[in-house]
User: What shape does this take?
Amino acid sequence: MKTSIATVSIAGDLPQKLAAISAAGFDGIEIFEQDFIAHDGGATDVGKMVRDHGLEILLFQPLRDFEGLPEPQRARAFDRAKRKFDVMNRLGTDLVLICSSVHPKALGGIDRAASDLAELGDIAKAHGVRVGYEALAWGRYINDQRDAWEIVRRADHPSVGLIVDSFHTLGRKLSPDSIQSIPGDRIFFVQLADAPRIDMDLLYWSRHFRNMPGEGDLDVTGFLKAVAATGYDGPISLEIFNDQFRGGSPELIARDGYRSLMALADDVERDAPQSRIGIQPMPARPRVERVEFIEFTADEPSAAEFEQLLASLGFRLAARHINKAVAVWQQGGIRIVINKDDSGFARSCFEKHGLGVCDIGLRVDSAKAAVNRATRLGAEPFRQPLNDGEMALPAIHAVSGSIMHLLDEPSGLSDVWDVEFEPVESGPDAGRLQTVDHIAQTMDYAEMLSWSLFYTAQFDLTKRPVFDVVDPGGIVRSQVIEAPDGVFRLTLNGAESKDTLAGQFISGRSASAVQHIALSCDDIFETAAELRSRGFQPLVLPGNYYDDLAARFGFDDQEIERLKQSAILYDEDELGAFYQVYSRPVAGGFFFEIVQRTGKYAGYGGPNAPFRTAAMKRLMRQEAT
Assistant: This one.
């Protein structure tokens, strides 16, 4: 399988696009005509530049409004096509995309369009090129791949074939099953795009809101399965029109594209092994079994303050590293690592943004398979020099410089706590916190799709729909990513405004940008009392919040007072209830959350987020003055 991406999908000028696409691992490109025209080099030079990047020009596109035109427009269309064929010869590509006409003077008729394409096929053959015909979802007469195939079939020319695009099929809610009846050798090219399900004009939706496979709501997997069933063995390409991508990092978008394409191809071959599309097998998505550790970077002063917060939460100092200034604080099944070492990745993170999470460790069913899959999807392994007695723990670069370690039990990697750390006699575990309920990562909204794609392509995780969190400074987009059994949960929070709490937190940051960590308990009231006895200071919400709780849920005065005195927030749905206690924010907006779930409540207290955010911002303003 040759992998490809349209240059229109990537930000930057043509040389920047090519560099990013090549570095991401693609085999070739669809060169968008506007990118070529805007470049200051000729066709021959552009072709050489593409090949110098190790890429092929697999498609030149688009040739618009060709078929079904009356004279004199018809003659002009043929003349235009001949000129484009000459350009293609100099570029060094042999396939052009012709999209179905939207010209106001175009005439309908399957036979008329087939006749035009057959005549064009003779001209294309003389130039040594081929023509691929595609049905635009908003085409004037042809907007269905079934009609486009009938035109190609009737044209009956070896230089004329079909191009299919997942958006044009799925955006119109057409079944891709009809593609299976098309001979694979008559499909010349396959384009893929996903999109969020939005009820709007097809053209506007397509031109502004497409995204990578796996980032939207369309059944791109089902579409590619239908293509694979035909026996098609040509390029699989991404054609993404997205305003956000056009203003983003070319390198990040290109890596996302490669990751999405490889994950999709793997999914198709796993679900339909009889219809192979030519990808080398890779390990299945690993199952996340637990959060093994969360590592903070700190210096001596910031660590001292942070350790006081951990102690007030019931954590105890459990172990110290044999070689480094690294300590493990533990409670229940939770490990918080504090790294004060004066060198290495953690130290570089501290120098960039101060106290904060620099690394997340996950226990998976197979660390070796997880790293293998990650590298096949374009992730880079992370390595640091080892000292005596230290284990080589596999790790990968995630998104935006973040690091993730992967451990498992069968290989012995989970023994690192016994091998590299010496226990500290600091008393028994007297805390009430049990596990990491979820981790909240904050990023610029422009990168949110990249984070979501990384997790869902790499691990056995699913995503929930994006929802809005109202902050006094603007809107934050939030999305839940979670394991099927709930042992690993993430909330991704995309900040569009720097005036939001999330936006303030990520300002000037890199690395993992973990803004808060939620820890579970089985009795929130007893836990809150225990924490108060240890000196924990919770975030306090105004009385208006509790008055509203009484109105919403019918609590009596005694229960409301009980919640208020313990600074507990509350939510419920038809499956159960959710209790929350927040720490006060530290280190520029980081905080802990203590939660209790009852019944089968699967939410995250979303209705409370605006009130919690307002209270935190108010407290941070007061402390700043």
